[in-house]
């Protein structure tokens, strides 16, 4: 298998996983600190999707760190297949959560003008923006692992 930037077990792969974790935690924290997010199903789904993303990315970041410290490769076909499936599942869930939350944010707080607390509205919007940024990094990882699987 060839080495592509973002490959599991490399420094760029570790940076991608840590970035995914940080953005997902940021999205969760902004959503949870805003009042009344639990009234909207899309926001609850975003929290669940980002929570799963934190677990997945943190686990792979630990695995990448282990591989870097031990100078091992994570390019066996079985591991790469696992990474492909996990990345694509979490990517799909994260995009669905970010998109549905963005739709609710625009509808309720933009079109209907029902946001009476400006600080809360900014927290919702920032949480959704961080979720989309997280999805971009997940998508990069997904494409990288899929490319590795196809080339191996």
Describe the protein in words.
- The chain has helices spanning 11-33, 41-70, 77-111, 118-151.
- 80% of the residues lie in helices and 0% in strands.
- It is built from four helices and no strands.
- The chain is mainly alpha-helical and 152 residues long.
- The protein has one domain.
List the helices and strands and how they pair.
Elements: H1 11-33, H2 41-70, H3 77-111, H4 118-151
Shape: elongated
Q: Structural class given helices, strands, pairing?
A: mainly alpha
How much beta, percentage-wise? Answer: under 5%
Q: Total number of helical segments? A: 4
Q: In whole angstroms, how far apart are the ends?
A: 5 Å
Total of domains = 1
| Biggest sheet layout | none
SSE run: HHHH
Family: Belongs to the Casparian strip membrane proteins (CASP) family.
Keywords: Cell membrane, Membrane, Transmembrane, Transmembrane helix
Membrane topology: Multi-pass membrane protein
Protein name: CASP-like protein
